[in-house]
Design goal:
The radius of gyration is 23 Å and the shape is elongated. It contains five helices and two strands; from the N terminus they run ααααββα. It is mainly alpha-helical. 70% of the residues lie in helices and 3% in strands. A two-stranded antiparallel sheet has the order 1-2.
Length: 115
Amino acid sequence: MKALKELMGTCKLQIKMVTSAFTFQSAVYHVNHLVTAHALRPQLEATLESVFSKGMIVKVADAGISYHHLELVFSRRGGKGLRTFLGEAVSSKPRVTRNGKIIDSLVAYFTSASS
């Protein structure tokens, strides 16, 4: 402690007290987001493991998208709707992906599942 006091005295550091780097509300939001994403992953893995890589499943779950959401978008808007939904800009990045091959494989999955 004595060495620290001497060091601070010779360096003339300005010490500012940081109350917090984030708000309580943002911490609660982040935890809720993680819980939701974690809950969505098993269902997505079980149903879409033949369509998406594990990394893509994590991206879908992190976006808060369930299998039911994907199924609903496909039933209402088809492949074009999935392309729009997954590629929609969120904070100037795609919600999940704009990759045509990935979306085409999902469209093929839902097309064969509805036949």
